[in-house]
Amino acid sequence: QVQLVESGGGWVQAGGSLRLSCAASGSTFSIYVMGWYRQAPGKQREFVAVIAPSGSTNYADSVKGRFTISRDNARNTVYLQMNSLKPEDTAIYYCNAKSSVDYWGKGTLVTVSS
Prior knowledge:
By secondary structure, this protein is an all-beta fold. It contains no helices and eleven strands. Strands 2, 4, 5, 6, 9, 10 and 11 form a seven-stranded mixed sheet that branches. A four-stranded antiparallel sheet has the order 1-3-8-7, with no helix packed on it. The chain is globular and about 40 Å long. The relative contact order is 0.33.
C-alpha cells in the first residue's frame, strides 16, 4: 500500500506561481507512475500531469508550458511546479500513484484570483 500526502496549495493571484508536493510512504516509490489530477467546483476530476519511473512526462494541453512535474525518488516525493497560474486553474489538486492499483491523496486546494 501507498499513503500520499499533498501540500503546497493556497491562494495566489493570476500570473503567480505555486509548488505542490506529494510525499509517499509505505511502498517502493520508484516503481510507481506518479501523477497530478485536479477537480474544480462542479466538474469532474481531470488529468494534469504524469511522470513515469524513467522520468518521462506527459501533460494536459491546458497546462503545457506552464506546469512542470518532477520526482525525487530519494525523498519519495513528486512535485508540481505551477507558473503563470490562471483563475481556471482553481481546483483541488490530487496526487496519484499508479501500479496495478490506483492510490490517491486527500488533495490540496489551489485558488487563483483574477
